[in-house]
Amino acid sequence: MGHNGALARDADPLSICRNVTVAGRRTSVRMEVVFWDGLMEICAREQIGLNEICTRIDAARKGSGLTGA
């Protein structure tokens, strides 16, 4: 986002950036809407929050960024 809150010109209109807390650290993750929707479905099914699932994914990833994990 720019200084006035507008999206940057080169921002992908199909992706969303969200702030999450991973292992106690705040970070941002940008993914397409379909991936966020899928992640939220998993959270509902597993009855865990977004921060918890992101922490679990982070702990299990091997060498890739959190978004790619």
TrEMBL record:
<feature type="domain" description="Ribbon-helix-helix">
    <location>
        <begin position="16"/>
        <end position="67"/>
    </location>
</feature>
<dbReference type="Pfam" id="PF13467">
    <property type="entry name" value="RHH_4"/>
</dbReference>
<protein>
    <recommendedName>
        <fullName>Ribbon-helix-helix domain-containing protein</fullName>
    </recommendedName>
</protein>
<dbReference type="InterPro" id="IPR027373">
    <property type="entry name" value="RHH_dom"/>
</dbReference>
<dbReference type="InterPro" id="IPR038268">
    <property type="entry name" value="RHH_sf"/>
</dbReference>
